[in-house]
Amino acid sequence: MRVLIVSQFFYPDITAAAFRAYDLYNFLRKHGIEVDVITTYPHKSEVLDIPSDRVIKVNIARLRDKSVISYLVHYFSFMFKAIFFSFKLSGKYDYIFTISPPLFVGLAGYIISRIKRTYFILDIGDLWPDSAVAAGKLRKESLFYKLGRKLEVFLYGHAYAITCVAKPMQRYIQEWAQNVHVIYSGPTTAEVDKVRALVSAGDNKRIKKTIYYTGNMGIVQDLDTLLLTAKRMSQNDSDNIKIQLIGEGSERPRLEQYARANDIKNVAFLGLKPREETFRILHTDADILYLSLMADSTLEKTIPSKLFDYFLLNRPILFGIEGEGREILEATGAGVYFKPGDSDSLAEAIRNLLENYDHYREKASGLGDMVSRRFTREINFKILLDVKGLMS
Length: 392
Fold this sequence. Notes:
This protein is α/β, with parallel strands linked by helices. The chain has helices spanning 16-30, 68-86, 103-116, 130-134, 143-158, 167-173, 189-198, 224-232, 235-240, 252-261, 275-285, 306-311, 324-332, 343-355, 357-364, 367-375, 377-386, and strands at residues 2-7, 34-40, 55-58, 95-100, 119-124, 161-164, 180-182, 209-214, 241-246, 267-271, 288-292, 317-320, 335-337. The chain folds into 2 domains: 2-186 and 376-386, Rossmann fold, CATH 3.40.50; 190-373, Glycogen Phosphorylase B (Rossmann fold), CATH 3.40.50.2000. Helix 2 (68-86) runs parallel beside helix 3, helix 3 crosses helix 5 (143-158) and helix 8 (224-232) packs across helix 14 (343-355).
């Protein structure tokens, strides 16, 4: 079998789509499948490129600002280059596998599948263009949004099969397609083994607790609520916690300025860290892990991949998300929910967790085992090989 993966993000970029594409590439190769990739040089993270076998990387237009035009130029530059470089790959492919976001990568994959006269499989990580509306990049009444919706439905209808990251997303896509499968974005077995070698489930007796957030610092992560809560909590509460943020994103400069302007002394921005280093920091210093998404019906259909990464640390989780992610977290009993975007709700959740920390830490002690049983990449990617009509 021979597969071509088309993805705008790939190793060593530090994004969920890059991890998913690279892990799929490795998984298929380990199962004896011949894999080629068309992708880009790292452009989302400040990391040095690392070449990979049979991987074509192209330069694309940089984002000059946050305008719609700038994003479209950025996306289209990869789409056209991916189609162009596909002509350099000779021979027959059994499947063209496209990793989205952005959705224009899906259009590139569809066109390449027509050129190569083969099957097109579409992997959906975010529901575009509605996720772009949630992030403030598009307005629903705009022409770009309407065209994006037409493209979305077109691709759903023309994909041989579709994979996605959560059951609510699957149900949404099934309005236009039937061959839709959930592949959760958990860590690889190798990552699970490395982190579990670090982790001890013993109680943490420190009085002052450290809350960590890791990942993208964009609009949809709604980190304003975390900073506003840190500002508003009483002095006694503030003395009991400190907040550390690891990552980068469009909102980081504004968030840092807000923290300085309001003299929020118990909040620190640590910048972007490699994935393995992040796990080491969390193991050493994190007492509580923080996860949030802004209140939005589109975001309720996804599961942030960091949820499964957090599980590996066996730490209590403060979570302000809805949908299947909330259901999974509440079933564990290992964290405290707060209403997305509600500072009062978050403050109450923090107090609850601090007052009952040992209880939640005990509940969290089995989270890593649950990832091993249900959510590793290998367990979920195996769907591709086991389901009739999906790369089989």
